[in-house]
Design goal:
The protein contains 15 helices and no strands. With about 300 residues, the chain is mainly alpha-helical. It has a domain of about 120 residues. The radius of gyration is 22 Å and the shape is globular. The N terminus is likely disordered.
């Protein structure tokens, strides 16, 4: 990595504190963006890592994506690479939101951007997408780095090619790769109903089980809802599993007597389960009201 000759790395803690403050407060003033830009070029890996995380909030400022791409490709420290790769996910997500993968995409159809020209986003999107694909395909790269690249590309999970890689990681003997795959399934869970159904079982390892429940959140699947119900009906379900299950059931909203079930868990002795149940009740109430407006009043534009 290139080092800024004028940057003093002797007090790295103060630098990290400032980077953390910028990130937490989302204070991306011109001076702070300049500070992030300089810190991305630091010789201190701790500072580069902190700057890479903070850069997620100013991706489209001048040179930020190029610097993060260089770190993601060339940095000698895996955690720093991962921080850069994680932040670059925002480019993929913005590109998807702007319709860059639509078959009939035309640059003039994009929303107006004040910060930069729309053509620049298209170029940067392709740059980051190619970077992620290259990392994903490189079997000699660190496995956890490839897993992160897979999740970054999960917004493209409608693509047969990305689904191929999700399947490859899902079939891996490494639990971390299986978790990355299941997490990626959550973007388009209707493609993966059978796989998620098989995972949602009391015998499944807890980290993988919770990820599968979370991936089912937007599935609209009565089958997956029934599997989650069975979990809750099992003997003494784990509190963390309950906390993941309740909002997913509320969002799917296809469970008979769901309101009563959520009310029952709102009286659970574990406080975090109570909180999860109350949050799920709010989701359930909104879903039920929206469905009433749609079914009874014919309001097709209701957000359901």
């Amino acid at each position: 990595m290139n080092e800024l000759p004028f940057q003093d790395n002797s007090d790295w803690q103060k630098t990290l504190q400032r980077l953390s403050y910028i990130r937490e407060q989302e204070d991306y003033s011109i001076a702070n963006v300049d500070f992030i830009r300089e810190s991305l070029l630091s010789s201190d890996e701790r500072i580069r890592g902190g700057a890479a995380l903070a850069a997620a909030g100013c991706l489209f400022e001048q040179h930020i994506i190029d610097l993060l791409t260089t770190i993601a490709e060339e940095d000698d420290t895996a955690p720093v690479r991962k921080a850069a790769i994680d932040s670059l996910r925002g480019v993929i997500e913005e590109g998807m939101e702007q319709g860059l993968e639509d078959e009939d995409f035309e640059p003039e159809d994009m929303e107006e951007w004040e910060e930069f020209q729309t053509e620049t986003l298209h170029q940067e999107y392709l740059q980051v997408k190619d970077l992620m694909l290259g990392i994903l395909q490189n079997e000699e790269d660190d496995l956890d780095v490839r897993e992160l690249a897979l999740f970054n590309l999960s917004s493209l999970g409608f693509s047969e090619y990305i689904r191929y890689w999700i399947s490859e990681f899902f079939e891996s003997p490494h639990q971390s790769s299986q978790i990355a795959a299941v997490k990626s399934m959550g973007k388009y869970p209707f493609y993966w109903e059978n796989e998620l159904e098989n995972i949602i079982d009391p015998k499944t390892a807890k980290p993988l089980l919770m990820e599968a429940i979370n991936a089912s959140y937007s599935s609209e699947s009565s089958l997956l809802a029934a599997r989650i119900e069975n979990l809750l009906a099992s003997s003494k379900p784990d509190a963390d599993v309950i906390c993941y299950s309740l909002p997913t059931l509320a969002n799917i909203n296809l469970t008979e007597d769901l309101g009563e079930l959520l009310q029952e868990f709102s009286l659970h002795p574990d406080e975090k389960v109570q909180q999860a149940a109350k949050a799920a009740i709010e989701v359930f109430t909104k879903k039920s009201f929206d469905r009433y407006l749609h079914d009874e009043l014919g309001m097709d534009d209701v957000d359901m």
